[in-house]
Amino acid sequence: MGRAFEFRKGRKMKRWSAMAKTFTRIGKDIVMAVKEGGPNPDANSRLRAVIQNAKAANMPKENVERAIKNASNKDTANYKEILFEGYAPHGIAILIETASDNNNRTVANIRSYFNKCNGTMGTQGSVEFMFDHTCNFRIAKGNLDPEELELELIDFGAEEVFEDEDGILIYSSFGSFGALQKELEHRGLEILSSGFERIPQITKELTEAQIADVEKLIEKIEEDDDVMNVYHTMKEE
């Protein structure tokens, strides 16, 4: 198996645990998708993907419809995706994806977390290069063979295909999202969920005490309402 498989295995127990947090995150994803491609899912592949994720998270249909309707309101006009970079203790690189309507607030909060936990906030581009920006799709297994499917989807950008307890996962580069989504839909395959992740190119093994230091910072960052995803180069078992 490749790095995507190992990455997924290491993170599978670190899913969003609070339903309210999950719905907030999806709601922001909907806002960003509508601003990028409009409110019609048929013409907006990113919005289509977010709606699939909402269904997978059991988000009520009326919540989804309300989020799409509210996406054009002045209250969401200033929402922007912002990437933060830095180092946790023990040389662990940290990459933080946020969606915020107040950049000054978000910058101040993220900086305070690094300072309080003996980390260092970095400049743009300081650690992003250490991560591969990927996209992924989870589809229903049915009678599909992951190895055969991988061969069939290579021309559409698929790089790694493997099975887990919830279906078949397909990983590719960030830029192949549209082509893969279109091909999966063309084949009539049920897309259960999809998304984007940043996979560390190299990970660092730490002692239990060092892991606790890093996790203290990660937990503080993840509690922030503006934070969507946190990635790091610490090796996870």
Note the total helix count. Answer: 8
The percent range for helix content is: 40-55%
Q: What is the overall silhouette?
A: globular
**Strand order of the main beta sheet, please?**
3-1-2-8
* Low-confidence residue ranges: none
Which structural class do the helices and strands define? alpha+beta
- Arithmetic mean pLDDT: 89
- The rounded Rg comes to 18 Å
Q: How many runs of DSSP E, i.e. beta strands?
A: 8
Strand content: 15-25%
Order of helices and strands: HHHHEEHEEHEEHEHE
Main sheet record: 4 strands, antiparallel
Distance between the termini: 15 Å
List keywords for this structure.
single chain, 237 residues, alpha+beta, four-stranded antiparallel β-sheet, 8 strands, 41% helix
Structure description:
The strands form two sheets. Strands 3-1-2-8 form a four-stranded antiparallel β-sheet. It starts with a helix and ends in a 5-residue tail after the last strand. Helix 2 (19-37) packs antiparallel against helix 3 (45-56). Helix content is 41%, strand content 25%. With 237 residues, the protein is an alpha+beta fold. The radius of gyration is 18 Å and the shape is globular. The mean pLDDT is 89.
Quick take:
This protein has 237 residues and is α+β, with helices and mostly antiparallel strands.
Topology:
Blueprint: H1 3-11, H2 19-37, H3 45-56, H4 61-70, E1 80-88, E2 92-100, H5 103-116, E3 120-121, E4 131-139, H6 146-153, E5 158-164, E6 167-173, H7 177-186, E7 191-200, H8 208-222, E8 227-232
Antiparallel strand pairs: 1-2, 1-3, 2-8, 4-6, 4-7, 5-6
Helix pairs in contact: 2-3, 2-4
